[in-house]
Structures are given as C-alpha cells and as structure tokens.
Amino acid sequence: DTTEYAIIGSTDGTYFFDLSDPSNPVLRDYVKGRRDSCIWREYKTYQNYLYAVSDDAVNANNQNSLQIIDMSYLPDSVHVVYDTDTLFYRAHTVFIDGNKMYCGYVNSATVSFSMAVYSLANPVAPQYLRDLNQDDPSIGTVHDMFVRNDTVYASCGNDGLHVYRFNATN
C-alpha cells in the first residue's frame, strides 16, 4: 500500500488522515491520549507501529503514558496495542534508530532520566536497556536528539550539545 497518512497531534489525542487525495484529506481514525489538554505530543514510527509520547503532566494522579498504535489496519482503523505508564508517564522527545527507542527527559513514578533507551525487539513491549544518567549524571535533560547507528547527538538545553555512543553494556 502506497497511501500516505498524516499523523496529527492535538491537545487531546492523535488523528490519522488519509492523504490519497491531498486536496481532500480524510480522517481515518482518532486515538484519545491518556491525558487531555497537552501542549506537546511527539511521534515516531517503527515497522507498522506509531510510538506516541508527551511530556505534559499535572500531578501524580493526572499523567500521560507511552502509547503504541498499530497502523496496519489503515485505512479502516488503528488499534492501540500498548497504553501504560509502566515504563514512563512522561517523555519530551522520542527517536527510533534500528530496533531501539531513545526517549529524552523521561519520568516515571520511581525514576527520572535525562535520556533512556529501550529495545524494540518486540515492538509492542519495549524493554528498558539503559539510561544516560548511568554514564553521565551531569546532564539534567535531553531536550531533543538525532540518533544514527547508536550515536546520539543530544541537545541538552543549558548543558549544550553532547554526543554519546550507545552500547548496551556501557
């Protein structure tokens, strides 16, 4: 299938538009976010999955989640296959390189990482591999990043630009 789709984030969720006729986009589906009134959502795709993160959180009782959405059913629908805050409830940015997902400025109920790396060997069940704080605790936030062949070019806010080479063991 060569159909192009637009994935549009809103304050309350994610919209999927069919762009077969760019002059007349067709809304194919919508997924409500875990939390509404978000000012920031970010997305990356891997295989037929969309990984959705947001860094908006009001308090411990009003959090976001990592959502994984299976897009293989388009144009009919999309299916949410993962929507939990088990790994984290908040991440500012997400980048996928190979079968790894890199998330910047990550918070969960128990930890806070400037950047964390997860395996997508099973795309619907990411597994935590490592976090940047283990190697460089001086970095408070990875605001944005570009990753190529496990080399992370990290924009770290007031801490500047840092380049890291990810290795699962160190």
Explain this structure.
With 170 residues, this protein is an all-beta fold. It contains no helices and 14 strands. A hairpin with a 5-residue loop joins strand 13 (151-155) and strand 14 (161-165). The radius of gyration is 16 Å and the shape is globular. The model has no long low-confidence stretch (mean pLDDT 90).
Can I get a quick summary?
With 170 residues, the chain is mainly beta.
General shape: globular
- The stretches of 5 or more residues where confidence is low (pLDDT under 50) are none
Determine Rg (CA atoms, Å): 16 Å
N-to-C SSE string, H for helix and E for strand:
EEEEEEEEEEEEEE
Strand percent estimate? over 45%
Number of helices: 0
Brief descriptors of the model:
mainly beta
Topology, pairings included?
Layout (H helix, E strand, L loop, with lengths): L4 E5 L3 E6 L7 E7 L8 E6 L2 E6 L11 E5 L8 E6 L5 E8 L2 E8 L4 E8 L7 E5 L12 E5 L2 E5 L5 E5 L5
Antiparallel strand pairs: 1-2, 2-3, 4-5, 5-6, 6-7, 8-9, 9-10, 10-11, 12-13, 13-14
